[in-house]
Write a structure and sequence with these properties.
145 residues, mainly alpha, two-stranded antiparallel ribbon, 73% helix
Length: 145
């Protein structure tokens, strides 16, 4: 049994749950992130790629919180849903956003969406926070969803 940081990392159920939670977060983050990059790319607005990617990160966080609020508002009052969404792990969301945008920056040299880079961004965005989400769920019983 593999124990590191005081938890068992071999729990299939926790990996499945944390993977599901991470996918929901990835969906929310990707909407704002990809939408921002696509906007600048489509309208050929020439900003510094770091500024575009920074705005994409911010918009990704906002859309992730909005999606989470919407999902949770079906299970609880809106105010509670919003507070829960705001209380999600920003560490997980920020690491996801950074991973996605660093992949874009390293592969394309800037804020550019192409068919080859999008899957790589999504894979990086999923895998980067997954161990943290597993740990958080296992150690504290806390997840976003």
């Amino acid at each position: 049994m593999m124990a590191y940081l005081g938890i068992n990392w071999n729990c299939r159920h926790t990996w499945l749950t944390s993977s599901k939670n991470t996918l929901w977060c990835l969906l929310g983050c990707s909407i704002g992130d990809f939408g921002t990059i696509a906007f600048f790319q489509f309208y050929q607005i020439l900003w510094n790629p770091i500024l575009i990617l920074s705005l994409a990160i911010l918009n990704g966080l906002i859309t992730s919180i909005a999606l989470e609020t919407f999902i949770l508002s079906r299970q609880m009052p809106f105010r509670s849903a919003f507070n829960t969404a705001i209380g999600m792990s920003l560490i997980s969301m920020i690491s996801m956003e950074l991973a996605m945008n660093l992949v874009d920056l390293f592969i394309t040299g800037g804020a550019v969406l192409t068919l080859p880079v999008i899957p790589l961004m999504l894979i990086a965005g999923f895998l980067t926070p997954l161990p943290y989400n597993y740990w958080r769920l296992k150690k504290h019983g806390k997840s976003c969803h």
